[in-house]
Design a protein that fits this description.
YgfB-like, two-stranded antiparallel sheet, about 220 residues, YecA family protein, SEC_C_motif, YgfB-like_sf, mainly alpha
């Protein structure tokens, strides 16, 4: 698999492919994918690719019916390459980390759009247990949720233009601080307990006591 940042054409292909197969449950664009991958890389617990790749599309029932295996493999490979690039910047070159925000033109001006990235980040947060953040770090997460959570986003209606721009400026440092905290304070994944068969023992089954007799000839009569 290739490493390093994706080219503009590769990012455009990812964006077009997401748009081609997106649903009400899936991410909507490459900016949301970037935010989700950033949160996954910052998670307090490891998340298996099989799990988060399903979450990209909103679950197993929403996985695309790919036009060809080659298309599917290309999407996965580019996504993993982009994830690797984000990881390298977060871990080794934080000064080079930049969220992949979107843009739109309005009245001849190019405006930064952060909502999709933040929604993707919060989608990634939901794949693990982020409880237990210190209050100061919870404020950092809230700075991202302000633009990525419908309930919190209502507060933006009362922001002045300067307050809104200031809230956008908080997103990048918040993501770096959250990543740094969970890398230093990872959570131990819960140990999977063996599944026990608590079903009723049949009368002709071997007795659970280990006598070697049939249950009906042993403990069933006790």
């Amino acid at each position: 698999m290739k490493t390093g940042p994706l080219t503009e054409s590769e990012l455009e292909w990812l964006d077009e492919t997401i748009d081609k197969y997106s649903t009400d449950k899936s991410i909507l664009d490459v900016s949301e994918l970037d935010g989700m991958l950033t949160a996954i890389l910052s998670s307090p617990q490891d998340i298996e690719p099989a799990d988060w790749l399903l979450a990209v599309w909103g679950g197993a029932d929403s996985v695309p019916r790919w036009s060809a295996d080659r298309e599917r493999d290309h999407f996965i490979n580019l996504t993993l390459q982009h994830m690797g690039d984000i990881a390298e910047r977060l871990n080794d070159y934080p000064d080079q980390f930049e969220p992949l925000f979107g843009t739109r033109e309005e009245e001849g001006q190019e405006l930064t759009v952060v909502e999709e990235w933040c929604y993707g980040y919060m989608r990634g947060v939901g794949l693990s247990d982020w409880s237990g953040l210190p209050p100061a770090l919870q404020e950092e997460l809230d700075a991202i949720a302000l633009h990525g959570d419908d309930q919190k986003a209502t507060a933006l209606d009362n922001f002045t233009a300067d307050e809104y721009l200031a809230s956008i400026d908080k997103i990048r440092p918040a993501a770096l601080m959250l990543h740094g905290y969970w890398m230093a304070h990872p959570k131990v994944a819960p140990v999977q307990q063996p599944v026990r068969n608590e079903g009723k023992v049949g009368r002709n089954d071997p007795c659970p006591c280990g006598s070697g007799k049939k249950y009906k000839q042993c403990c069933a009569n006790k």
